């Protein structure tokens, strides 16, 4: 009798796992195209966390960030620092069940070149994302190059026109006026934890910057904290014969 009960429990547990696997396989993909290991974390960790059970999330990271993440960098690339930041990045990816794709471009010297665009195109085709987040291009040059490569790859794959594409901001230097806000107040502690994973080599200046922005956007959003986004194209109820969806409005 005891054995029979164990067999039934094992059978039920396998069935539940199979159903869960099946459910997860039906999830669409999100691709976040970033330049450095801490970019999406500072900008949109709250939103990514809110999306993590609805989609599979992939992240492109053009550079390992081997110059470090302080404003006082020596300008000398340090592969050990790069390796540590890759490790940090993998830890933050684990918080949103994301898959990282590192392209190993030199930190501080990320240029929009054909080889990297081709790699981005190949990843876009492989991942086939329903939703893509990209850097706002009016920003420091590395981030601008990352945005240019993302736009080129989206254009060449045609995905620019039939996917949801959003700009995210890093920092506050950049004329960024969000059109869409996401209330991230309920997950703010998790965002704080995720950003702090990248703060072990400096003080918490990037967390403070993220908090300042989120409080500022929160005043517009009527919530304590908010993250802001700009859609690549204006939202429309009919564009190229498709309605423009907005996954962010469902959060
Ligand atoms: Zn960056």
Compact summary:
With 251 residues, this protein is an alpha/beta fold. The chain has one domain: Rossmann fold (3-Layer(aba) Sandwich). It has eight helices and seven strands.
Explain what the structure shows:
The chain is of the alpha/beta class and 251 residues long. It is 46% helix and 17% strand. The chain is built from 8 helices and 7 strands, in the order αβαβαβαβααββααβ. Helix 3 links the parallel strand 2 (55-63) and strand 3. Zinc ion (ZN) binds at residues 35-36, 39, 143, 170.
Under the CATH scheme, the architecture is 3-Layer(aba) Sandwich
- The CATH class is Alpha Beta
| Helix/strand/pairing category | alpha/beta
Q: Segments where pLDDT lies below 50 for 5+ residues?
A: none
The number of distinct helices, counting runs of at least 4 residues, comes to 8
Kindly, what is the distance between the CA atoms of the first and last residues, rounded to a whole number of angstroms?
Answer: 48 Å
- Overall mean pLDDT stands at 89
């Amino acid at each position: 009798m005891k054995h029979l009960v164990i067999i039934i429990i094992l059978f039920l547990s396998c069935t539940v796992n199979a159903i869960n696997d099946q459910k997860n396989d039906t999830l669409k993909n999100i691709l976040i195209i970033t330049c450095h290991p801490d970019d999406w974390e500072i900008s949109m960790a709250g939103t990514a966390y809110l999306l993590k059970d609805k989609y599979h999330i992939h992240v492109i990271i053009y550079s390992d960030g081997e110059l470090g993440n302080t404003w006082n960098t020596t300008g000398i690339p340090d592969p050990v620092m790069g390796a540590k930041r890759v490790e940090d990045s993998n830890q933050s990816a684990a918080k949103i069940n994301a898959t990282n794709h590192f392209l190993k471009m030199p930190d501080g010297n990320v240029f929009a070149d054909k080889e990297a665009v081709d790699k981005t195109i190949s990843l876009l085709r492989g991942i086939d994302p329903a939703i893509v987040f990209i850097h706002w291009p009016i920003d420091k040059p590395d981030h601008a190059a990352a945005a240019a490569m993302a736009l080129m790859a989206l254009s060449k794959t045609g995905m620019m026109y039939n996917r949801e594409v959003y700009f995210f901001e890093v920092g506050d230097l950049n004329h960024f006026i969000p059109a869409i806000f996401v209330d991230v107040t309920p997950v703010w502690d998790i965002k704080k934890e995720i950003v702090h994973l990248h703060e072990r080599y400096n003080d918490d200046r990037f967390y403070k910057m993220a908090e300042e922005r989120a409080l500022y956007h929160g005043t517009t959003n009527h919530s304590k904290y908010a993250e802001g986004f700009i859609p690549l194209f204006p939202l429309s109820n009919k564009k190229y014969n498709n309605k423009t969806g907005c996954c962010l409005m469902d959060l």
